[in-house]
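Bug #77: duplicate submission created two jobs. Keeping one. Sequence:
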Amino acid sequence: MSAGAVLRGSFLVFVAAMLQTVVVSSVVIGGGAPDVLLVVVVSLGLIRGSIPGAIFGFLGGLVVDLMTLDTMGITSLVLTLVGFWAGRYGETTGRDRRFAPVIAVGAITILAGLFGYVLHYMLGEEVVARHALVTALIPACVLNLALALPLHALTRRVVGEDDRTAVSPDVEVLAR
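Kept job's structure:
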């Protein structure tokens, strides 16, 4: 990945983190709020792969953690896994599929919500399971799905296509 692609990706993650923290988190529709940063990290993971996706997820989560002064590290850890999961999906099966961003955003939004709830529970923080897993997660998932294709197109336009043209090579058995 070129230095320009890293800078463009970092800039996109920073802008998405700022928008998420300052504007979007206060917009509650149907009990849930969209997560622009999660959708951007999923898109970056699909386009660039698992390791860059995890790095961009960590950086975006760190910005959100520093801006909100919530429990440090939870958003960073969740978004690191989000970027990695999206990157693995893109590397293995979903790179060239038309609705890969929608499938990835839907599944990863639910997984990230569950993982975030488990982390808060393990840290001893008081979280109402019904609110975290039903009341807020379902509308957030629907809103993230609505943002998946437009934000993926924007991310692809800003960051550009991946330099790799081939997906992971298949194993070939040679017998003599």
